[in-house]
């Protein structure tokens, strides 16, 4: 059983590397900004698992006052299929449980259909909903003003 703990300042570079290695970064999402924002408030966190000075798994968890959400569920490719992904999700669910959350949502990119089996193995099911989104601040801009 691996241990998951909250991310610290010294983990940031290694977490970004993990996300890159797992193919989770996108040019229009600044991972450093995502990490800083998740660490800023008490309704969100990033949990990491460290082994031999490497961050080998991560999960970002948070809630908006209604539902819990998971992002950046990542396991180093060299450590996949050994139960770490399951432990990451369960650790995030436990953290969300301490926040009073009783239901967790997550988004899977359409091109990442392959991980559907992973989430189904953990008890998640596909809901008949459509995800709509609009960027209200352009990349590089700090706020709406
Ligand atoms: C998805 C990911 C986190 C899974 O991590 P993992 O450590 O390999 O998964 P686990 O070993 O904990 O697997 C848990 C269960 O899911 C199953 N599973 C894992 N990956 C699967 C896949 N791609 N397809 C189907 N089932 C899968 C396992 O067989 C296992 O089932 P079991 O317990 O019934 O045997 C990992 O593959 C990853 O980091 N992928 C790249 C990043 C990514 O796509 N993240 C998800 C973004 S939405």
Helix content: 25-40%
- Low-pLDDT parts are none
Bound ligand species = coenzyme A
Spatial extent as radius of gyration: 15 Å
Q: Secondary-structure element order, as H and E?
A: EHHEEEHEH
Strand content of the residues, in percent?
15-25%
Distance between the termini: 47 Å
CATH C-level class is Alpha Beta
Task: Write out the strand line-up for the largest beta sheet, numbering strands in chain order.
Answer: 1-2-3-4-5
Count of helical regions: 4
CATH architecture: 3-Layer(aba) Sandwich
* Oligomeric status: single chain
Q: Summarize the main sheet.
A: 5 strands, mixed
How many domains, in number, for the residues? 1
The shape is globular
Structural class of the secondary structure composition?
Answer: alpha+beta
Tell me what you see in this structure:
This protein is α+β, with helices and mostly antiparallel strands and 145 residues long. The protein has one domain: Gcn5-related N-acetyltransferase (GNAT) (Aminopeptidase, 3-Layer(aba) Sandwich), CATH 3.40.630. It is built from 4 helices and 5 strands; from the N terminus they run βααβββαβα. A 5-stranded mixed β-sheet has the order 1-2-3-4-5, sandwiched between helices. Strand 2 and strand 3 form a beta hairpin. The longest helix has 15 residues. The radius of gyration is 15 Å and the shape is globular. The mean pLDDT is 95. Bound molecules: coenzyme A. The site of coenzyme A has 19 residues, from strand 4, helix 3 and helix 4.
